[in-house]
């Protein structure tokens, strides 16, 4: 991939992340962990699309929508989009919790069964992909609610945030 294509790819990814963050952050207010929060093999936070929006600060999504001067109608549409995504993923979230419990039990068993762990890991991988696809679709739908100018503001904000994060990253 050429340097310009790589940059374009990461810019598009950053924009999608910002859009998902903005919309999901608004949804995370007042809610416990949603279907996008997934634990790792030992029950820790492994991550997934939109994981931990509440950890980014209460009202973060509202702030993002404030930055782009989203209208009440846009906010309502974005709220409905992510509310539907959460509802769609509720059963998936419950199933994933059972898989994570199973994985933890396998790792803490007297005899560690690598084949059983791999089987559960494969199921979790498929589950994470399903969640990722659904949340990406929600982010796309939310992006379509915003104007090109609003999306450009979010992209600029993502670029500035990435620059701040790069300064903090050692190495």
From TrEMBL:
Signal peptide (UniProt feature, chain positions): 1-28
Main location: periplasm
Protein name (Swiss-Prot/TrEMBL): Spy/CpxP family protein refolding chaperone
DNA-binding recorded as keyword: no
Compartment annotation: Periplasm
Coiled coil region boundaries: none
Keyword field contains Signal: yes
One Pfam family per UniProt: Metal_resist
Family indicated by similarity: Belongs to the CpxP/Spy family.
Domain of life where this protein originates: Bacteria
Alphabetical UniProt keywords: Periplasm, Signal
